[in-house]
Design a protein that fits this description.
The complex is a heterotrimer of chains A (about 250), B (about 375) and C (about 300). Chain A is α/β, with parallel strands linked by helices and about 250 residues long. Chain A has 9 helices and 10 strands. Chain A has helices spanning about 40-50, 95-100, 110-115, 120-135, 155-165, 185-200, 210-215, 235-240, 240-250, and strands at about 5-15, 15-25, 30-35, 55-60, 65, 80, 170-175, 205, 220-225, 230-235. A 6-stranded mixed sheet of chain A has the order 6-7-8-3-9-10, with helices on both faces. In chain A, helix 2 (about 95-100) runs parallel beside helix 5, helix 4 (about 120-135) crosses helix 5 and helix 6 (about 185-200) runs parallel beside helix 7. Chain B has 14 helices and 4 strands. Chain C is an all-alpha fold and about 300 residues long. Chain C has a single domain, classed as ABC transporter involved in vitamin B12 uptake, BtuC (Orthogonal Bundle). Chain C is built from 11 helices and 2 strands, in the order H-H-H-H-E-E-H-H-H-H-H-H-H. In chain C, strand 1 and strand 2 (about 135-140) form a beta hairpin. The longest helix of chain C has about 30 residues, at about 1-30. The termini of chain C are far apart. The chains are: A alpha/beta (about 250), B mainly alpha (about 375), C mainly alpha (about 300). Chains A and B meet through helix 2, helix 3 and helix 4 of A and helix 7, helix 8, helix 9 and helix 10 of B.
Chain lengths: ~250, ~375, ~300
Amino acid sequence: MSSLVIDDLSIRFGGIKALDGLTLSVEPGQICGLIGPNGAGKTTLFNCVSRVYQPTSGTITWDGSDLLAVPAHGIARHGVSRTFQNLGLFPSMTFLENTMVGAHPYGRTGFVRSILSWGVRQEERRIRREAYELLEFLDLGHLAFEPAAGQPFGTLKRLELARALAARPRLLLLDEPAGGLTHAEVDELAETIRHVRDEKGLSVLLVEHHMGMVMGISDTVVAMNFGKKITEGTPAEVRRHPEVVSAYLGTRA
Amino acid sequence: MALPVHIPAGSRADIGWRVGRVVLIALLVFATPYLVPSFRLSQITGALVLAIAVVGLNLLSGFAGQISLGHAAFFGIGAYTTGVMTVKWETAVPITLVVGMVLCFVVGVLVGLPALRLQGMYLALVTLAVGVLLPSLIRRFDGLTGGSSGLFGMEWEPPGIAYFAGRGGETVWLYYVTVVALVLACVVVWNVMHSRIGRAVVALRDNEAPAIMTGINRAFVRTVVFGLSASIAGLAGGIFAVQAGILTPEAVSLLLTINLLVAMIIGGRASYWGPVFGAFVIYFVPVWTSDLSQGPISGVLFGALVILLVFVMPNGLAGGLTSLVRRVVVVVPQPPRGATEGPSPVPVEPGDPAAGNPPLEARLVR
Amino acid sequence: MELLIARLIDGVNYGVIYGFLALALVCVYRGTHHLNLAQGEMAMFSGFIAYALHAAGLPVILAILGAVAVSFVAGGVVERVLIRPLGAHADYSILLVTIGLFLMLNAAAGVIWGGDPLAFPSLVPDRPDDYIGFFGTRLRYLPLLILGVLLAVMGGLFALFRYTRLGLAMRATASNPESARLLGIRVSGINALGWMLAAAVGALIATLIAPTTTLTTTMMFNFLIYAAAAATLGGFDSPLGAVLAGIVLGVVENLVASYVGFVGSDLKQAVALVILLVVLMVRPTGFFGSKRVERV
């Protein structure tokens, strides 16, 4: 069973300690919400897990192996996918093509095979079909051949989710998925995430500012501030925790 | 019948449309030697050689979006490899072409490596430096390369078939050789871009960090593309050596790089036909303007044309042609067979970028 | 020993020119963060304009100042018409436009003034025995003048950036155009100013070196390569760095060419190019430039 275990993770940028001895874990099939004020280190943590940053100390274990030994382009093959706060789509490709890129780790065509066109047609057909089915799963099938630009933000976020799912992840890292969405879109997204977790049986670690959404779908919530974990527990427990309240609302003067 | 005609992708009409175009081009290719005088055929071959080099440049700069201000260097390496090997060591031309291509691939990868760490302007500078370095090196090692005085006497004897006999024989032979090389180069680029690797290339171009997250090995893809692009330019150079018969360091200088870049822009970046159109324009416009008047006018024209194209027609001639063709025929992509539902083929307006695109065709956002 | 000093001085003379042109590149970069490949040709064209003014009857000094003024305005026109409409992130398009400009100016000069080199008089006496003795070598007046003008221009730019509000606005824009715009700084005007200053500087260089090189359409091209190398070495956003780097480059290049037999004169430029490549690999932002940080 695949779980994510982050142990005593720290990272410094010059004089600033962006993460300070952070420890958290995500059990298989769990949705874990990460909350905290701006600058708490949530995206930094994400970037460490997705191997954009190299932490100064601590470990990240995924599925029993050391994730810190894996380069950024290797995590997809290890079953870890992420989405981006401001969308990381490829505008010159269609919805279908964007999703097909997600399946990159499962292709066998390299330069030699592509030049010789050896086995390419079959592989393309398979990837195309699977990507299409994924788009339909997320109710985007009708947009398959549209360019991935010029659509509503919420739709594009779902496309990014489709692309992330094309890698058949066992861990999904969602970076502020509700950012920029309308109320209706947020509800839809929450439902989608739950649906995806139920159908595909994966774990989700999400960073989110939208309290309603995070508290609504998370199994556990971790609250951070100043690079440290303040507390963790069920949504109800965390919501009432005095340090969390003061981090967001301040203390009585 | 209302225009544009919509053809579902993969249908018999689609296949017919594709085969028909190939047949048309093949007819044009075979008819040309009969339709034009020998010196004109030689010029056409010259333009086609240039086209091969532009295909290489386009793979790197158009499809992969990496600036290269020194592509003439690869052309030069290919040219001088063939030149030196045939003149000094009397090696058979095909072998020299292969050697040149391999050498260019290696150099291309070496240049591509620092390119991994640099963006935009800095990459431009690296490639500029390499491009300016080569003619200097050629001049310095004049014992081998003939230096500034040049390298002479390259040629490629046609095989002893009746078709190539006679005084125009070598010209016709070189024409067909170049056509075959161009087709090969185009097919290679097409194959690469229509595969998983091609998607990776475009993904890296569009949005690098997310592309890496999806599992694309940036270092590997980028350097191999550099090498491949250099290799194709090297092939062009090798053929140029035997076609021109003379090589000088000036012929492979920055001026050539600029010509290749301009040809790429005029033809249309990230397109398959663009390099051919662009190469013909670059090759023949000076020929015509020198008939008309002073040479430098073509320089002014080119400069103005480049600037104009950047603003007005960023998709170049190929883009213009594609738009025109779409007013007549549109190939509508179909959902994969075996999928549960499909979108009904929605009739779209001409010029709608979503309709009938083969994957990854010239849709540059910038 | 005297030979060494002579070679050093020779290197410095060339280095000053590289640094001077690099200064122009830096002016453009500070505004629009791009390399203006047409900088050399713009300078060359300005040189020819000075020639035309002089041929029309103006004394040399006025012809030079006139060319500088015309170039100043022209730089703004180029930025406004060709560069600004392309937007902020069109790296490739801007590069191509500068290439197009390069081609046009190069060819246009040939069309207007013909292909033969033209003579342009020097501001200071430049006869064979016009020099100041220095440890047995000769410091000629013209290179001294060029050095003097360069120092004056650098001083002027330094004062501009450091002590004026306009200079502050320029530095702010170079650092963060979006914030600068929000603060009410007319970013587009600042960018234009960068191009205008660069064009004026280019005109100065061309008219000052014209007496030695004669006015030809290829006079500036080689210098552009060196200037690019100098600007890279020194850091594209540091005027002082670019000039220092230019001088260092000139000296190193000349010394290596003189003392390393393998290099000779063919590979002289290669020395600068190799230095450029090494710097790009090791420290692309140069020795005086500032690193640009990108957030994911």
